UniProtKB/TrEMBL annotation:
Main location class: membrane
Compartmental location: Cell membrane
Transmembrane segments: 42-62, 68-86, 98-119, 174-207, 242-264, 270-291, 298-319, 339-370
Keyword Transmembrane: yes
Originating species: Microbacterium memoriense
PANTHER family: PERMEASE PERM-RELATED, TRANSMEMBRANE PROTEIN
Bilayer topology annotation: Multi-pass membrane protein
Keywords assigned by UniProt, alphabetized: Cell membrane, Membrane, Transmembrane, Transmembrane helix, Transport
Name by which UniProt lists this protein: AI-2E family transporter
Residue ranges, annotated region (Disordered): 1-24
UniProt similarity note: Belongs to the autoinducer-2 exporter (AI-2E) (TC 2.A.86) family.
Lineage, broadest ranks: Bacteria, Bacillati, Actinomycetota, Actinomycetes, Micrococcales
């Protein structure tokens, strides 16, 4: 009986299909990360300390190269500002090399003419301003405007003018403001060397601008190169046009200042014209700032002439804001007024003068990228 039963059970097992067995994945050892392993705190702390030191060293290296970045940014902006002139010569059949030579030769002649004609006059007028300052303050004290202020505030006004006169006529105070005579000399030397570096770098950037663009395109995927090339050309053209427009507007301010100071017989017309050009090239706030400076300087000579200058320059500011700026800038760059103000404030806060100069082109570039890239993607999304 037992053999038959055993054989019957074996036959039954042979007819019954085997039950599937669940595959059990092999148990792997838990991942062990050195930097999160609490069993090795010394190694983790050592690696974290090395990472912090490396990050600190990288930040210090970047911050120590701020001057170099500023030189590069100014040189690139000069190159983009001169590039439209080079392209215009190229459209007339001039090779790019000779076009660059012609543009820089004309730029050098213009700079030499400015230095030769204006700098000696400006230096002479600065010396004259320092020597004539006591006489100007004495004449100002005889005006009705000063007498009315003195009657309201008492002896504080004469004391304040006396302190101002003694401060401005003492060269030691001016040297102390600049950190000493040696520091002033170092600053002048650094400014001259920085200007030379910017000019040389801008020449290299202008000569190799097509190669730089081509190398940038090669870094992008092939499907994106056409759009990137189109955006880059529009951005560089807008930056060049913007810088050219700012120079034109600053030159108009300088010419108007020189004419007004000459007609009104106010002192130092050449000095104030150069000051107007340097200040009004700053977008938004430059014109308003020089309006205050020019009015204060004219006030020391003649209150009536200062009032006339302030009124005429105020009218010019409206003309520039509503007529000249739209005509000069609209072809090169188009940014809403609110974004112009916000961009200039942010750029000036973060990077000073350089940030204020680049704020509007950067804002225009961002708007162009949003218009050409972001909005089409959103429109194509289902």
């Amino acid at each position: 009986m037992r053999p038959r039963r055993a054989s019957r059970l074996a036959a039954t097992d042979a007819l019954t299909p085997p039950e599937p067995t669940a595959s059990v994945p092999p148990v792997s050892a838990p991942a062990r990360h050195v930097w999160t392993n609490v069993n090795r705190p010394f190694v983790a702390g050592f690696l974290l300390t090395l990472g912090g030191i490396a990050a600190f060293a990288l930040g210090a290296a970047i911050s120590s190269l701020v001057t170099i970045w500023i030189y590069i940014a100014f040189a690139l902006f000069v190159a983009l500002g001169l590039n439209p002139l080079v392209q215009r010569l190229e459209r007339h059949g001039t090779k790019r090399t000779w076009a660059i030579v012609i543009v820089y030769f004309g730029f050098a002649i213009a700079m030499a003419a400015v230095i030769w004609l204006i700098v000696p006059t400006v230096v002479r007028q600065i010396a004259q301003f320092i020597s004539d300052l006591p006489t100007m303050i004495g004449d100002f004290q005889t005006t009705d405007f000063y007498l009315s202020i003195a009657a309201q505030f008492g002896d504080q006004v004469p004391n304040l003018l006396g302190e101002l006169q003694r401060f401005l006529t003492n060269p030691a105070n001016i040297a102390a403001i600049g950190g000493g005579v040696l520091q002033i000399g170092i600053s002048i030397g650094a400014t001259i060397s920085g200007t030379i570096i910017i000019i040389v770098l801008s020449l290299y950037f202008l000569a190799s601008l097509p190669q730089i663009k081509h190398a940038f395109y090669r870094l992008l995927p092939a499907r994106s190169r056409t759009l990137a090339a189109d955006l880059t050309e529009q951005i560089t053209d807008s930056v060049g046009g913007y810088l050219g427009g700012m120079v034109v507007l600053a030159f108009c301010n300088a010419v108007l200042t020189f004419i007004l100071f000459t007609i009104l017989s106010l002192p130092f017309p050449a000095l104030l014209a150069v000051t107007a050009f340097c200040i009004t090239i700053i977008p938004l706030v430059g014109t308003v700032l020089f309006w205050g400076i020019g009015s204060v300087v004219a006030l020391f000579s003649s209150p009536v002439a200062a009032l006339v200058f302030a009124l005429v320059y105020l009218v010019y500011m409206q003309l520039e804001a509503y007529v000249l700026t739209p005509k000069v800038m609209n072809k090169a760059i188009s940014v809403p007024g609110s974004l112009v103000v916000i961009g200039a404030l942010v750029g000036g806060t973060l990077m000073g003068l350089l940030g204020a100069l680049v704020a509007i082109p950067v804002t225009a570039s961002i708007l162009l990228i949003v218009k050409k890239v972001v909005i089409p993607k959103q429109d194509a999304a289902v």
